[in-house]
Amino acid sequence: MHHETTRRPVAEHAEMVAALVGRALAVGRRRRTTAEPAVLLTAAAGARWAPRVLARDATAVVDLPGFDNSQMDGYAVRAADLVAAVAGAPAELRVVAPVPAGTQPPPLPPGSAAPVMTGAPIPAGADAVVKIEDADPPQFPSFEDSRATVRFHASVVPGSFVRRRGSDVGTGDVVVHAGTPLGAAQLGVLVAAGVDTIELAAPPHVLLLSTGSELVPAGGPLGDAQVYDANGAALAAGLATVGARVTHRVVPDDPAALRRVLAEAPDDVALVVTSGGVSAGAYEVVRQTLTDAWFGHVAVQPGGPQGLGTVALGDPAAPREAPLVAFPGNPVSALVSFELFLRPALAAATGAAPAHRAGGRAPLAEPLDSPPALHQVRRGRLDDRGRVVMVGGPGSHLLAHLAAATLLVHVPPGVAHLEEGDDIDYWEIR
Q: Which CATH number do you get for residue 418?
C-alpha cells in the first residue's frame, strides 16, 4: 500500500484520475464496441434516452434535403423572366397551380410563377423563389382564378431561397461521426438522413461499492447506530449522468466480504468506485484490503482522504485489473470528490456530458474564512443581486445543504479570509 503524509494538490490528483480512468475506458471501449448490437433508431428515439455515444460513423441513406425545395412561402420563378423587372416597370407573370408541401409539381412554363410553400419542391425549370412579401400583390390569389397574374418590381438571383438537394448531407456522407454523444439534434438528423440503425458504444460498467458496517440500503430496516446508504444513491445517479452503467453493492467493514464482492464482479466491469474506508481509522476496509493502491490526502476540504490505483477482479487465480477510484465516506465529501475528480474524467472518456461544469465568478454576499493550506469547496447559490451566498457551513456531513445549493464555491489554497464583495469562482451544479 502506498500512503503519503504530504497533501497532493487538487489539480495533480485530478490529472492522475483522468489519466488512469481515461486509459482504461479507452481500451475497454475498443474491446466492447465490436460486439455492441445495432440499435433500431426509431426505438431509440422513442425511448427514454440515456447518454450514449456513437460507436461507428453513421452515413446518410438519402440526400438531405432530398429534393430542391423552397426556403420561403412565395413564388417559384425562372430568374430569366425577371431580368428586366424594375420599380415602375415590373415583370408580370401568369400564376399557375400552387405547390403545397408533399406534392410533386409539373414543370414551370416560361412566363409563369407558381405559388410554393416552405419545404415544397421547386418545379423543374424554376431556379429561384421570390418571397410573398416582395410580390405585387403581397398575398396569394384565389387558386381557382385561372387568369390571375403577379408582378415583380425587381430581378432575382438564381438560387435565391432555394434549398438545394444534398446541400446539408449527401447520400453516403457521414452524418454523425463515431465518438459523438447522441442528443436530440443527432437523433433528429439521423432519422432525416434515412438511417434506420445505429451502433452505440457500450456504456462503461462501474462497480460502485458503499463500504461500512453501519450502512443500510435505501428502504431497509434501520437498526441502532445505523444509517441509510446515501452515497450509493447519490454516486449511482452521478455516474449515470456521465454515461455509466452501475452495479451497486453495500459492503461491511470486513476484508473478506470486500474480497468476495470483487471476486464476484461482472466480467465487463471497467471501473471500481468506492466510498468510505480510506481514512486512518481502525476499520478502514478499503485502505486495509486493497494494499496495492495509493491512499493519502489531497489538499481539499471536504474530501481530503482519497485512494487511487488498480484492483484485481474476478477469479483470484486468474484476476483481471480495473482502475480504482476511492472516495471518503462522508456524503458531502464523496459527492464533492466525484465532482472534482471523477465526473470530469468520465465525461471526457465517454463523451456523454460536458467534461467541465459551467463556471462563473461573482462577489461574495458575506465574509468567508478558509484553511489557507487547502482548496476549500463550499456550497452556495446566487442571490437576486448576483452575489454568492453560502448554503450551510463547510462540514462534510451537511448533505441537505448540498442538496439545496446550486453552486460549488471554490476558495483556492493560500486564501485564509475573504471579505464581503470579494470576487470568488464557482461551478454551477444544477
A: 2.40.340.10
